[in-house]
Amino acid sequence: MKDLEISQFLKNTKIFTGLDEGQRREVSALFTNKSYKTDQNIISIGESSDAVFLILKGACRVSVPFDFGLGENILTSLKSGELIGEMGVITGNARSANVIASVESEILSMSYNDFWGIAHKYDVILTNIIRILSDRIVALNEGKKTRAHAMLNLDVSQQNSIKTFYDYIERYNLIFPRYCRHTS
């Protein structure tokens, strides 16, 4: 994809709102484009946070693995125009979740240094990131009320495996029972 096409795409993203055409072209030149197949990892937990990503086409899921190899807990789904990996780049911490292509996807990536260079040059980008992260916090806080009693997205077999595991721990007093309770 050419810089001009990427520049037009950036016009409709939350993070680059407020940049003029020339600024968007400058930003678009800093991105590289890569294709990912369905279920291919884009980011893996523990990796160095050395780039930010923007979904050009497709969709991704953000997840963390369940213990004991029981699958993944999907934290959120992301679509075209959404930014990935900015939290690690901002904090300097390693990646805290996996990001996986849900369908065939095209992803733009920008290096850590290029991201910070352009963010310092055009402070509207940092303002937009603050808005995006604030919106996420509000959504999390609103969702806590409904998720507090919701089952994790486990199938019946996985739920039964976890219940069996906790029953075993309690039966053999491997952990103080008052610290390890499950609900049926």
Q: What do these coordinates show?
A:
This protein has 184 residues and is an alpha+beta fold. The chain has 2 domains: 3-153, Jelly Rolls (Sandwich), CATH 2.60.120.10; 154-184. The protein is 39% helix and 23% strand. It has helices spanning 3-10, 21-28, 86-91, 112-121, 124-147, 156-171; strands spanning 32-36, 41-43, 51-57, 59-65, 72-79, 83-84, 98-101, 105-111. The strands form 2 sheets. Strands 1-8-3-6 form a 4-stranded antiparallel β-sheet. β4 (59-65) and β5 (72-79) form a beta hairpin. α1 packs across α2. The termini are far apart.
- Spell out the helices and strands N to C: HHEEEEEEHEEHHH
Specify the biggest β-sheet. 4 strands, antiparallel
For the largest beta sheet, what order do the strands appear in spatially? 1-8-3-6
Q: What class, by secondary structure content?
A: alpha+beta
**CATH C-level category of the largest domain:** Mainly Beta
What is the number of helices?
6
Helix content: 25-40%
CATH-derived topology of the largest domain: Jelly Rolls
What fraction of residues sit in β-strands?
15-25%
**What distance lies between the first and last C-alpha atoms, to the nearest angstrom?**
52 Å
**CATH architecture annotation name of the largest domain:** Sandwich
CATH superfamily of the largest domain: Jelly Rolls
Q: How many structural domains in the coordinates?
A: 2
As a whole number of angstroms, the C-alpha radius of gyration is 20 Å
Uncertain spans: 146-151, 176-184
Number of strands: 8
Q: Averaging pLDDT over every residue, what do you get?
A: 83
Principal-axes geometry comes out as elongated
